[in-house]
Design a protein that fits this description.
With 143 residues, the protein is mainly alpha-helical. It has one domain. The protein is built from five helices and four strands. The strands form two sheets. It has a two-stranded antiparallel sheet with strand order 1-2. A two-stranded antiparallel sheet has the order 3-4. A hairpin with a 4-residue loop joins strand 1 and strand 2. The termini are far apart. The N terminus is likely disordered.
């Protein structure tokens, strides 16, 4: 059996069927590298361990920890993180703007395409209406 924070697999298990069964102490004790805490846990559950139930409980504990950690980090470093995220948003915006300029200059303008003719393939009617209300230096002469 291999256990870490990302997986818990025993050679030969098929996820969905075998995880619902109880593993007895004899089977579990065949693995020699258990930590002392794991050995104590196994010895306390003489009737066996329901692996599915154990993983569900572990998953809840991990989720609770992540929720706590998220709040704790934002309480202490929230202002710095917000500033960082704001800069990342600006950088991505510049990058996105540059990519669109390249696309428009190399594809749309060279082939003399009118992008407004293709909006109905990607937008709903009310969204298209909104696009035509936005002031633009390259408004289409016809829809």
């Amino acid at each position: 059996m291999y256990i870490c924070d990302r997986n818990c697999l025993y050679r030969g298990w098929r996820i969905g069927q075998d995880l619902k069964k109880m593993e007895d102490n004899e089977t579990l004790s065949k693995f020699n590298d258990w930590s002392s805490i794991a050995k104590t846990y196994i010895s306390r559950h003489r009737e066996g361990i329901n692996v599915e139930e154990l993983l569900e409980e572990y998953s809840k504990d991990v989720t609770n920890f992540h929720s706590w950690l998220f709040v704790a980090v934002f309480d202490k470093y929230g202002q710095d993180i917000a500033e960082y995220l704001n800069y990342m948003r600006l950088i991505k915006g510049f990058s996105s703007e540059s990519n669109w300029k390249i696309l428009i200059n190399q594809v749309v303008k060279q082939k003399q395409l009118n992008p407004y003719l293709y909006l109905n393939q990607y937008l709903q009617d009310d969204q298209i209406e909104y696009v035509f209300f936005i002031p633009s230096s390259f408004k289409a002469t016809d829809r």
